[in-house]
Design a protein that fits this description.
Largest sheet: 2 strands, antiparallel
Number of strands: 2
Oligomer: single chain
Radius of gyration: 16 Å
Strand order of the largest sheet: 1-2
Number of helices: 3
Strand content: 5-15%
Length: 65
């Protein structure tokens, strides 16, 4: 159950806290690879969302000027 919670890529303070170290405790090789893949995907999605937010802020700033 705890591994499912960690693997979900829940976030705190806006950034996904799951990382490669969280996956190291998983013994099964396939499950560990899946965990690492989910962690990478969560990080990529977080970075993309952050990039979009920055673009929106820049656009709003430009539109106001």
């Amino acid at each position: 159950m705890a591994s499912a919670f960690l693997a979900a890529g829940c976030s705190t303070m806006g950034r996904p806290y799951i990382g490669g170290n969280d996956c190291d405790e998983i013994v099964d090789a396939r499950a560990r690879l899946d965990c690492l893949e989910r962690a990478d995907r969560a990080e990529s999605e977080w970075r993309e969302e952050l990039r979009r937010e920055q673009e929106e802020k820049e656009k709003e700033k430009t539109d106001k000027d």
